[in-house]
Design a protein that fits this description.
Structural class: mainly alpha
Shape: globular
Strand content: 5-15%
Number of helices: 15
Length: about 300
């Protein structure tokens, strides 16, 4: 942490808001919110001021000093992560954060960052959720693997012809169909077959049309395995600002105004947008109802 950031923090009040922390550190409000969501040791809220939570400035300063890597301008993200994901064959399907990090050769903070920055409420392709098994919090490795491989090959948000969508659905399967020692999930599906199901889940959740029974074209998949899509988490219905305005019967200016006036860090922030500027319509509807801003035509 450089002297300029320390100086900027020192000039703030004893109790600070997320926007003030963001300004002092040169981050965005959402960037600071990512720290809060990712790191369990981020300073606790000690009070409120208007719409915003307050934290002790000295605690924030001490926390930043404990995490100097956040300000390492030469730091680069994990390299060739997709190659590591393709090559990995962990012994178990469900892994802890530590085991997932070791499998990919990254830090636990990296896995926590993916989980926080690609949550269902902010991403159209969320990071696989954790499930509790006893005292452990675990994630399905084949699901995480598929998500990693989709990072550099995301599904376009615009409608696409079936032949192009089919190519995307089979991208990893076609790459690995000749693998002589494929990884297997707990259902007995190869990682390549599982990737097809994961991609189908994402495509259906984002509104793309996948023909009934299409999964049976893939050797080893059938209606029973395709039905497991119902048991997998799906992304929420997400709409752009103009689509939200039309659906809810309010103006586009109102949507943008709420987003500006109720940013991340306030007591009841407006639902966050994802990388496509889309928001979960049910979260927006609920927020409007709580704030008394929902028109009768939008209920």
């Amino acid at each position: 942490m450089d002297k300029a950031i320390k100086k900027a923090l020192a000039e703030l009040p004893e109790q600070v808001t997320v926007p003030q922390i963001a300004t002092a550190t040169g981050r965005s409000d959402s960037g600071v919110q990512n720290w809060i969501d990712t790191y369990d040791d981020f300073p606790d809220v000690v009070g409120g001021k208007g719409r915003f939570h307050l934290r002790l400035r000295r605690d924030v300063l001490a926390w930043l000093a404990k995490h100097p890597n956040l300000f390492d301008t030469n730091r680069r993200g994990p390299q060739k992560l997709d190659e590591r994901a393709l090559a990995a064959r962990p012994a178990a399907e469900f892994l802890t954060v530590k085991e997932t990090a070791e499998t990919l050769g990254v830090s636990r903070e990296s896995i926590q960052y993916y989980a926080a920055s690609a949550k269902p409420e902010v991403s159209s392709d969320p990071f696989p959720p954790a499930v509790r098994r006893g005292t452990s919090s675990l994630r399905s490795w084949p699901a995480v693997r598929s998500w990693i491989l989709r990072r550099d090959d995301p599904l376009p948000s615009s409608p696409m012809p079936w032949d192009e969508l089919r190519t995307w659905l089979l991208a990893v399967y076609d790459l690995e169909r000749g693998d002589s020692s494929p990884g297997l999930d707990d259902r007995g599906l190869t990682y390549a077959q599982r990737d097809v199901l994961e991609r189908m889940r994402v495509a259906v959740a984002q509104g793309h049309a996948v023909p009934d029974g299409w999964a049976e074209e893939v050797p080893g998949l059938n209606l029973d395995t395709a039905a497991t899509l119902d048991a997998l988490p799906v992304a929420a219905r997400r709409l752009t600002p103009s689509q939200l305005a039309a659906e809810l019967g309010i103006s586009l200016g109102s949507i943008r105004g709420y987003a500006r006036r109720y940013p991340a860090g306030c007591r009841d922030p407006f639902p966050p947008k994802d990388e496509h500027s889309a928001r979960d319509i049910e979260e927006v509807r609920s927020w409007l109802s709580r704030s008394g801003s929902m028109p009768s035509s939008g209920i």
